[in-house]
Amino acid sequence: MLSSRVTLASRPNLLLISKYASSTPNVKSIQPPNPNKITSDMVGPPDPVSNLRRIIFRKPANETSLERKYRKLRTEVQEWNQIFWTQHNSRFFKEREAYLKSNLPEGKTNLTADEMSVFYKAFLDKNWKAHLDYNREWYRKNITLLILSLQVKFRKLFRIKDK
Amino acid sequence: MSYLKVLHCTLCIKQGALNLSNKSVLLKIGNKPALHHLIKISTSCHLNANPPLTSQSTTAKAKNKKVPEDTRIWKETPTQDVKNNLVQYSMMLSKFRLTSLVVMTSMAGYALAPAPFDLTTFAICSVGTGLVSSAANSINQFHEMPFDAQMSRTKNRVLVKGLLEPSHAIGFAAATSVTGLSMLYFGVNPLTAALGAGNLILYTSIYTPLKRLSIVNTWLGSIVGAIPPLMGWAGCAGELGAGALVLSALLYSWQFPHFNALSWNLRPDYSRAGYRMMAVTDPALCRRVALRHTGIITATCLASPYLEVTNMWFAIESLPLNIYFMYLAWQFYKKSDSGSSRKLFRFSLIHLPALMFLMLVNKKYWTSSDTQEQKDSKPQDIKHPETKRITVLPRGPVVAAQDSTIHK
């Protein structure tokens, strides 16, 4: 019922569908991969707002507690980063629009670089404290992740050696 | 089945109408809110329809790769082909073009030092400097990954794209810094190694964090650029004399017109990414400082014969180069637009190698014994070097006449 309706609706696009169907890997890759089925961590396209690429972390069946801790921390840091930059960049574009709206003379579509630079300076100064806090947190988190990653790699190396 | 639904949805988005009747199918895909999926799907469709504009780095990579370009949306991270492309990835981690320029300045420092030129030490010093610079750049990329992602100039770096992991970058940095510093310590001398280690710490632990806190970073970053020639000089002569400081001062001052011009067109990116640069916080200061330092470069070059680093010819030969540099900086100061900044930046890339070349062919003392003879005999402008001579430029009649009086 539903399926037939769908097929009918897509009849004009049948050729298009078969094209996509033949190159299934491309179509499959549009959807984010399943953490339980992938063989390695997968990195996606850059987020249009935050510019950061999302990583789907692999969840192996025989995950040790250290590996799980590492994966959970990576996920947490990734989300924290995504949230910060999404909010920050949205604020930037919103304030830029507001600045343009209030300062654009009639008939012009763009301000000169020097006129815009007033806004850029103001935005940078306004966010100095936010960046300071973010930086401190980011350095701390990044180094913690590095240490964990080295521990995980180290343990893995030893396990292979023991076999 | 779900493929069809997805395609239909993206076509709708492209045509501008958001078809919310597909909501039930989207939920089947995952637990994330519909908007997330819509964003992802629209992004991936957008990417499928409009392949990303190839930047310089990606075209370079495409030229080197013998396998067809990977066009998948989701890729393995880290990439599976690390072992096959070690050289490429090392070049990317080390910021190869920047490292090459650093090694060139160090080589110039070595060649300009008033001590015998030893090919082995020269090679070890150059490679060691290159390795330490690679380590510094790798650590910098490790620290700045989310910021690099924000700026168009840097968004294709390996860590941003997920081609390599942070632990790869740090492993690479550890290997290159240990090898490089050991080469400098055992193959050259401890002073060079100490300068290298100091520069590494200055760049990674002081300059890199400071970029986000204060414009003082530019002045400290210029010191980072001025140390490699000191390393080369120390590698040859074993100590730092007045001549070393002249070359260093030239490199320190050069950083300002170079970087200020570069950063001028990146103001929107720097502002959004949170980097504190003069170009954003005080554009007038940015242009003033660039102009000021081209003046300092000219003055230093004119003074270098009096400081016993080069002969008089250098002062004359470098004058047109420096005057043009000053002219471009003046244009940048007056016009303050993207055209003049780009011209200044591009010329700075020619100016530095040309200046170093001129210093090299006009150097005053070829060995330390020359300095001793100078003190004994009447002051001359040029003496025949004992070990090697570069006679690219014709020597003036006055000098040739003086030479003939020496060799009676």
UniProtKB/TrEMBL annotation, chain A:
GO biological process: intrinsic apoptotic signaling pathway
Pfam family, one: COA8
Membrane protein topology class: Peripheral membrane protein
GO cellular component: mitochondrial inner membrane
Cellular compartment(s): Mitochondrion inner membrane
UniProtKB keywords: Membrane, Mitochondrion, Mitochondrion inner membrane, Transit peptide
Record keyword rRNA processing present: no
Main localization category: mitochondrion
Alphabetized InterPro entries for the sequence: COA8 (IPR018796)
Family per similarity comment: Belongs to the COA8 family.
Identification of the protein by name: COA8 family protein CG14806, mitochondrial
The species this protein was found in: Bicyclus anynana (Squinting bush brown butterfly)
TrEMBL record, chain B:
UniProt cross-references to CDD domains, sorted A to Z: PT_UbiA_Cox10 (cd13957)
Primary site of residence: mitochondrion
Location of region: Disordered: 370-408
Transmembrane segment boundaries: 96-113, 191-210, 312-332, 344-361
Similarity annotation: Belongs to the ubiA prenyltransferase family.
Entry function: Converts protoheme IX and farnesyl diphosphate to heme O.
Protein name: Protoheme IX farnesyltransferase, mitochondrial
